[in-house]
């Protein structure tokens, strides 16, 4: 709170939500934590609206950035978009009283004890959708397994991404009869006309057609430093003179910090947030310092490095660049998406760097990028295989809604 992280929407976090009229219709409350979950929810939202037109849909987020993305994506689809309440009984009760949902859908195993207990006592059905649990999370939760059994008692249905995720939540105390495996909704990447327009705007503004673009997506500290060191060596090669780098930091509060880092490393740079100018087409490095626009830049890339993976963070989502038909590189730390990364590696659809020291990591990253630049056919094969995996795994959103139908009184496909 000192950093102002929860200042936005503070009244709503206390349960004081805007007036809401459900018009006598049952309400589906979908909760997404941040940007990633909000983006991933798009195919699920479309399926819910298609199969349950007689319901009202409301959407909550935890973070300010998630709220901004939700407002942009779902303003014409959700009856209300708001901040999730603090997990205090009085805040939860206020929010539930205003929304009066029939069902609450929690994206990716977002569990809050007071919220779940109060919702259950209010006869609200609760489902985890697109649920996932890493080994690390399970190991932590096992220290409080008795408490987790109480928490999971209030969950009516757990729709998990993989069988491993299902086994993990069962290990924590979830009843097997309430667990279903649906696949990962993030494989269902919808085509967004607005994003296509934005892609065209970026292509024109930054002169991408005349250069080869490397996109470093969802980066964390100190990954930008290592990327810039690798990029410096790449740029010094005459055959790579037209190669440019776009950095997309994971956290908005680091935008200025990364801009200073780029400048201190001697690169010319431009920021997406700045007024368009002649430098946009000439700068070595483009800083995408905006929220919710990452998907629109993937079609412009030749190579995509997915961040949060050179450090023991667990990695970020590789599915969006795969859906954009791109060659992907990650670091060794991808526990957050272990099952997905494993499938990509088994089918030679991804380059994953090994665990190395800092100096060696930079060299290895540089070598991987150079290989893809010098051998475009290798990159095309990686991209083709990644895209094929996306197509083969589509359909999780449809399966999710099928399993949710009993919680919604079997009123699917009825007005």
Question: How would you characterize this protein structure?
Answer:
- This protein is α/β, with parallel strands linked by helices and 415 residues long.
- It is built from 18 helices and 14 strands.
- The strands form 2 sheets. It has a 7-stranded parallel β-sheet, with helices on both faces. Strands 10-11-9-8-12-13-14 form a 7-stranded parallel β-sheet.
- Helix 6 links the parallel strand 4 and strand 5 (125-131).
- The longest helix is centred in the last third of the chain and has 17 residues, at 358-374.
- The protein starts with 9 loop residues before the first helix and ends in an 11-residue tail after the last helix.
- Structural classification: alpha/beta
Largest sheet: 7 strands, parallel
Extract low-pLDDT stretches.
410-415
- Provide the spatial order of strands within the biggest beta sheet: 3-2-1-4-5-6-7
State the helix count: 18
Strand residue percentage: 15-25%
C-alpha geometry = globular
Query: How many β-strands, per DSSP?
Result: 14
First CA to last CA: what distance?
Answer: 44 Å
């Amino acid at each position: 709170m000192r950093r102002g992280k929860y200042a936005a929407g503070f009244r709503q976090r206390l349960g004081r939500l805007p007036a809401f009229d459900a018009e006598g219709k049952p309400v589906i409350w979908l909760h997404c934590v941040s940007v990633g979950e909000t983006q991933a929810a798009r195919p699920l939202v479309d399926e819910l609206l298609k199969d349950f037109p007689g319901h009202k849909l409301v959407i909550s987020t935890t973070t300010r950035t998630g709220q901004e993305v939700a407002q942009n994506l779902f303003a014409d689809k959700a009856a209300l978009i708001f901040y999730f309440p603090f997990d205090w009984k009085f805040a939860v009760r206020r929010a539930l009283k205003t929304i009066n949902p029939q069902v609450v859908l929690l994206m990716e195993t977002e569990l809050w004890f007071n919220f779940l207990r109060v919702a259950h006592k209010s006869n609200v059905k609760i489902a985890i959708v697109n649920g996932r649990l890493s080994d690390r999370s399970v190991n932590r939760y096992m220290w409080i397994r008795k408490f987790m059994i109480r928490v999971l008692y209030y969950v009516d249905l757990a729709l998990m991404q993989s069988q491993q995720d299902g086994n993990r939540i069962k290990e924590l105390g979830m009843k097997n009869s309430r667990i279903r495996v649906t696949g990962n909704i993030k494989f269902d990447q919808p085509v967004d006309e607005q994003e296509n327009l934005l892609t065209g705007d970026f292509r024109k503004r930054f002169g991408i057609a005349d250069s080869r673009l490397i996109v470093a997506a969802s980066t964390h500290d100190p990954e930008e430093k290592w990327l810039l060191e690798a990029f410096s060596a790449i740029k010094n090669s005459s055959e790579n003179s037209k190669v440019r780098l776009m950095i997309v930091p994971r956290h908005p509060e680091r935008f200025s910090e990364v801009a200073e880092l780029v400048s201190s490393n001697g690169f010319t740079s431009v920021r997406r947030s700045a007024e368009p100018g002649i430098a946009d087409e000439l700068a070595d490095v483009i800083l995408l310092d905006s929220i919710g626009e990452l998907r629109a830049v993937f079609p412009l890339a030749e190579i995509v490095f997915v961040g949060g993976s050179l450090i023991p963070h667990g990695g970020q989502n590789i599915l969006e660049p795969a859906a954009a038909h791109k060659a992907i590189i990650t670091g060794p730390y991808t526990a957050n998406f272990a099952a997905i990364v494993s499938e990509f590696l088994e089918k030679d659809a991804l380059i994953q760097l090994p665990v190395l020291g800092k100096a060696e990591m930079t060299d290895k990253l540089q070598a991987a990028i150079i290989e893809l630049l010098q051998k475009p056919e290798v990159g095309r094969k990686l991209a083709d295989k990644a895209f094929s995996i996306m197509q083969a795994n589509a359909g999780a959103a449809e399966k999710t809604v099928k399993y949710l139908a009993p919680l919604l009184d079997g009123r699917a496909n009825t007005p």
